[in-house]
Amino acid sequence: MEGGVIESGKTEFTECWRTTWRTPYIMRLALSAGIGGLLFGYDTGVISGALIYIREDFSEVDKKTWLQETIVSMAVAGAIFGAAIGGWMNDAFGRKKSILVADVVFFFGAIVMAIAPSPWVIIVGRILVGLGVGMASMTSPLYISEASPARIRGALVSTNGLLITGGQFLSSLINLAFTKAPGTWRWMLGVAGVPALIQFVLMCSLPESPRWLYRKDKVDEARAILEKIYPANEVEDELKALHESIETEKALAGEIGDGFITKLKGALSNQVVRRGLYAGITVQVAQQFVGINTVMYYSPTIVQFAGFASNQTALALSLITSGLNCVGTIISMCFVDRYGRRRLMIVSMFGIITCLVVLSAVFFQAASHAPAISNFESTHFGGNSTCPAYVSAPNAGSWNCMTCVRAECAFCASKASEFQPGACLVSANDVRSACRGEQRVWYSKGCPNKVGFLAVILLGLYIISYAPGMGTVPWIVNSEIYPLRYRGTGGGIAAVSNWTANLIVSETFLTLTNALGSAGTFLLFAGFSLIGLVAIYFLVPETKGLQFEEVEKLLEKGYKPKAFRKKEETSEGKNQVSS
């Protein structure tokens, strides 16, 4: 049946393995559509490494924080429009065509970035790639959800999340592979077009979503697909459930109209959809405001903040975070349907908050014990090489490495030891070469310290806390929480909210670190995470193992956390899935 619930104690992942082993066609559908998640993940991860080398190739990018933020965040801006367009395309033309269009746009965006002669052309390519990612980010999990048996739906939608993190890990490997190649960042960004091309070819041989086909009165086509997905004895039951659901939807569509604007108004005026949007938007915004994409977009830069100066070392250490993200997603696939969506998110948020607070303390400790600035060392390379802000500072004697870096200059470590007083110099290529020519270490983002390794460990723990819960579950919730007639619209609104929050975070991170320092910035994200935890607790119901129609009934009643229900509501809820 469409919404069958598996037995207690059996993970949906185990059931997924058994079902797909018997019916490999299901996994073919899920993996082919899930490449959209791979595109999403690759784009998220690749820019973190490419940005280091773009800064070296274009001095204007290195000197302007806002230009670095723009290169990173314009893909997110494109994704906002892509998600909005994707919501409309999903309903009008189907899930399959939406994915194919996303692949074409993404492919051309990757080519534009690879041949870009200036930062502004890179930005154009980033916008195109973002449009493709935005369409794919909401369409892929929707397609997988509607082409999956309900008893393994959560695990299969999690394959999209796994491929997102797999894409991030792949991008880290690609970044490392091209560090010594001519063109470095051009190869890193251009390779992104390959998975888009592969998905386009695979999707051409796959069918449309059976639910969408049935909605468009293509019953025979829908039946043919369901026969490939379900055992023969379940096909008629599934068709019957689908028929009842869509007939109800059509009746309501006749009342509210079928245009996008009309549907949007209808969605916002419908109490069930509004409650679904409260939950869907909450988890999507919370996913971004825990600061995850500061880690994914800027992980090598954050590692440099922690005191690791080498580009190669920063990229290698950032590979650990993307690898752990993959591991965490696999954990989610194993447990999302044993312990539920809501519980995983709440536990995840507690871990995230703890890691962010401790990470903030580590960065504060590192900044407090940064090496001092030596006037002798600073003038050693010639007067024109000394940082102007240091020369004119009335309190230059109190400067340390962190003060120097925040003044947009760079720290050239002492020959004797990187922890001894060093030079505060102009951040320029010729000065950097002179510093390194004397076998000194050049720090332009962070400072040498003895606790940097703790920051890397905490970043790893943060990822392990994030990935199993807040990493994958918000997308699962948004594939389940809306009535069918508003699923494309609701998913589009939630995806736009996700990308908008992503844009805000990615466009302000470097500016925040300049203004508040790394410690203050991560503490701020801890505060946002606490607000997100409270919102999830009060607004997000459990949807584990429920049919789409049962989720709708749950929202009709209105959701309250178990601790805040009246006694009679609690006794009624014993027959429902535990919250």
List keywords for this structure.
disordered C terminus, 74% helix, mainly alpha, 1% strand, three-stranded antiparallel β-sheet, 579 residues
Model description:
The chain has 579 residues and is mainly α. Helix content is 74%, strand content 1%. It has 26 helices and 3 strands. A 3-stranded antiparallel beta sheet has the order 2-1-3. It is elongated, with a radius of gyration of 25 Å.
How is the secondary structure organized here?
Elements: H1 12-22, H2 24-57, H3 59-63, H4 65-93, H5 95-114, H6 119-146, H7 153-177, H8 185-190, H9 193-204, H10 210-215, H11 219-229, H12 232-256, H13 260-269, H14 271-289, H15 292-305, H16 311-335, H17 341-368, H18 375-379, H19 388-392, H20 401-406, E1 410-412, E2 423-425, H21 429-437, E3 442-443, H22 452-471, H23 473-480, H24 487-539, H25 548-557, H26 567-573
Antiparallel strand pairs: 1-2, 1-3
Give the helix proportion (percent range).
Answer: over 70%
Uncertain parts? 1-10, 574-579
Class by SSE composition:
mainly alpha
Order of helices and strands: HHHHHHHHHHHHHHHHHHHHEEHEHHHHH
Main beta-sheet strand count, sense and barrel state: 3 strands, antiparallel
Dominant shape: elongated
E-strand count: 3
Strand content: under 5%
**N/C terminus separation:** 23 Å
Look at the structure and give the mean pLDDT. 82
Radius of gyration: 25 Å
Give me the number of helical elements: 26
Spatial strand order of the main sheet: 2-1-3
